[in-house]
Amino acid sequence: MEMEELITQITERLPAIGGVRLVVGIDGLSRSGKTTLTSKLLAHYEKENIPVISFHLDDLIVERERRYGTGKAEWYEYYQLQWETEWLREHFFGQLKTAEELALPFYDPQMDRRESRKVALPETGIIIIEGVFLQRSEWRGLCDYVVYVDSAQEQRFNRESAEAKRNIDKFQNRYWKAEDYYLKSQNPQSHADFIVRN
């Protein structure tokens, strides 16, 4: 029922945008279920023959040397250095409504380098942006409609691999502190248009 309501709310906004693109943001902390929700939305709109494309913000992070071992606190590296937030604001978010295609620096985790790739945007339809910290101050207001996927920390941690769980210090010092900062400083649930309880 929750999924049906979400799809209805998104679909109802399509006529209102006058035949242009609707930018939908899927926000939520790590392992909250953002990717699963995005996949469901993509499948639905593809089935309905509504043009749709998605972007995953983790594909647009910077190289390791720019976000690890910088001398800054680990949580700060994750929250502030993981992405080129201002560049993305101007060259990614700021172009979604008007550009025919985007040239974006996609990160290759195996090679630890970024490679520019061009992505064509649909003339009309839905663009889904999935990513943690999506409602940070630098990016707030750049999506037409925002979904926040809410999931408790214990549940999210249980979804990690056994290998990842063994490195709990990284979660405590890097991920969880950054997430706490995001929740306290940005209060993302209060700004979302729709909340999914996962």
UniProtKB/TrEMBL annotation:
The keyword Transferase applies. It comes from the Bacteria. Keywords: Kinase, Transferase. Residues 23-196 form the Phosphoribulokinase/uridine kinase domain. The keyword Kinase applies. GO terms for molecular function: kinase activity. InterPro entries: P-loop_NTPase (IPR027417), PRK/URK (IPR006083). Pfam families: PRK. NCBIfam families: PRK07667.1. This is Kinase. The lineage of its organism: Bacteria, Bacillati, Bacillota, Bacilli, Bacillales.
